[in-house]
């Protein structure tokens, strides 16, 4: 297992890494919707979903992976009433990246770090 670190995604805010490679898989930690350049988080839940997915993709890219390599996502949302907007942004991300939709779980949580509305983790596979 090898850890992944990139400046193109937010740094870990605790004792964990942005992602790891394990065999032919790359597994990301949950990605908050923090813009790695500005360190800011958008207020809009759909923009947060897109930023979280872009952060996850930035972790995959150093290993030569793209959105079409993502086979599973887990979406954590603060409020399932936002599911429709998150779902639209999620769908558009995969369309814009010319990728099939992966398997997905979506769960409502009581609270996310930094009071984010969304956090997304992904598993990608080479080949």
UniProtKB/TrEMBL annotation:
GO cellular component assignments: cytosol
The species this protein was found in: Vibrio maritimus
Gene3D superfamilies registered for this protein in UniProt: RutC-like
Official protein name in the record: Bona fide RidA/YjgF/TdcF/RutC subgroup
Family the UniProt entry places it in: Belongs to the RutC family.
InterPro entries per the UniProt record, alphabetical: RidA, RidA_CS, RutC-like_sf, YjgF/YER057c/UK114
Lineage start: Bacteria, Pseudomonadati, Pseudomonadota, Gammaproteobacteria, Vibrionales
MF-aspect GO terms: deaminase activity
């Amino acid at each position: 297992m090898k850890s992944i670190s990139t400046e193109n995604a937010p740094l870990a805010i605790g004792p964990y890494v942005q992602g790891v490679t394990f065999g032919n898989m790359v597994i990301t930690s949950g990605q908050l919707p923090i813009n790695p350049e500005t360190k800011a988080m958008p207020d809009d839940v759909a923009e947060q979903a897109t930023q979280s997915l872009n952060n996850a993709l930035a972790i995959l890219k150093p290993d030569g992976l793209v959105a079409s390599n993502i086979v599973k996502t887990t979406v954590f949302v603060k409020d399932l009433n936002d599911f429709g907007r998150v779902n639209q942004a999620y769908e558009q991300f995969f369309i814009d990246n010319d990728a099939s939709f992966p398997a997905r779980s979506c769960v409502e949580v009581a609270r996310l770090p930094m009071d984010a509305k969304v956090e997304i983790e992904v598993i990608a596979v080479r080949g």
